[in-house]
Specification:
DUF2000 domain-containing protein; mainly alpha; DUF2000
């Protein structure tokens, strides 16, 4: 995938329950990230973190 010239779009029915929308977006995002590792870039500080709080601390 040419990430400079192509974009992924998720279209999810807004009439679905909020939990189902969140789960659908999460599963689709994880799957797309696994199949196309270059799409989601993780910075060096993020790779060593186990929690979001650790990530925030590493950014400082």
């Amino acid at each position: 995938m040419d990430t400079q010239n192509e974009k992924w779009v998720m279209i999810i029915d807004e009439n679905l329950p909020l939990g189902l929308i969140a789960n659908t977006a999460a599963i689709m995002g994880i799957t797309l990230g696994k199949e196309n590792p270059g799409v989601v870039d993780f910075s060096d500080p993020a790779q060593s973190c186990h929690t979001y709080q650790e990530y925030i601390e590493n950014l400082k």
